[in-house]
Write a structure and sequence with these properties.
Largest sheet: 8 strands, parallel, barrel
Strand content: 15-25%
Bound molecules: 2-phosphoglycolic acid
Number of helices: 10
Strand order of the largest sheet: 1-2-3-4-5-6-7-8
Number of domains: 1
CATH architecture: Alpha-Beta Barrel
CATH topology: TIM Barrel
CATH superfamily: Aldolase class I
Shape: globular
């Protein structure tokens, strides 16, 4: 069995004072009791270094929410994977549906995943279908095509996050059967060594059922990761 990964994506939420949150999490779920899983928090860029400083000794990992394909250059407003690594990040989310909605294509995600590899950090490559695609019975093909376009062939160290777009931040969760079917489909493509996370309205109340589903190796959590009691409850369910 693969080691589970419980990843919090804070999106554009937070402030300097939130760097006390890892201490709160640690108080509720001690490192000694979570030796079987990895816990990761991805704050907004300005807080990555401080989050790392506040988290590393507590055995909580820090990640970025996106990165640019290049190491450096005239790209105003962008952040490179090397910069994230320099600030202590060991993971970076790429291809989140909110980035894809802002224009990222599979080809963009592919080069961002390569940038993570170049910087020595692990990309969490997000895929997921829209509601219309699910309803038309196309979900497996869509996700298969996203994986084919987004995951570099040479990559061996990466994580996939399956996040049905219609389940993100909506309170709607895919059924356990749908999650199971999609994760089997992705497992067939990615192989046995790659962790496959589920994401989309994971909460303390549904975490145990989702995380005990076959081929679900963890969760990518948005809203519920902002509250450490909820985040700890989800991690405990793993
Ligand atoms: P959510 O977000 O848990 O708030 O639905 C998940 C995500 O966007 O990764």
């Amino acid at each position: 069995m693969l080691r589970k990964l419980i990843a919090g994506n804070w999106k554009m939420h937070g402030e300097q004072a939130w760097t006390i949150k890892p201490a709160g999490f640690d108080g509720m779920f001690k490192a000694a009791d979570r030796s079987h899983l990895d816990v990761l928090i991805c704050p907004p860029f300005p807080y990555v270094r401080e989050m790392f400083a506040a988290s590393a000794s507590r055995n909580i990992l820090t990640g970025g929410q996106d990165c640019h394909a290049l190491e450096k250059g005239a790209h105003t407003g962008e952040v490179s994977a090397e910069m994230l690594a320099d600030c202590g990040a060991s993971y970076v989310i790429v291809g989140h549906s909110e980035r894809r909605a802002a224009g990222d294509t599979d080809a963009d995600v592919h080069v961002k995943a390569m940038a993570a590899k170049r910087a020595g950090i692990t990309p969490i490559i997000c895929v997921g279908e829209s509601l219309a695609q699910r309803e038309s019975g196309d979900a497996n093909n869509i996700v298969g095509a996203q994986l084919a376009g987004s995951v570099p062939e040479c990559l061996t160290d990466y994580v996939i996050a399956y996040e049905p777009v219609w389940a993100i931040g909506t309170g709607k969760v895919a059924s356990v059967d749908d999650i199971k079917d999609m994760h089997v489909h992705i497992r067939g493509i990615a192989g046995d060594t790659i962790r496959i996370l589920y994401g989309g309205s994971v909460k303390p109340g549904n975490a145990a059922e989702i995380l005990s589903t076959e081929n679900v190796d963890g969760a990518l959590i948005g809203g519920a990761s902002l509250n450490m009691a909820d985040f700890a409850a989800i991690a405990k369910a793993a």
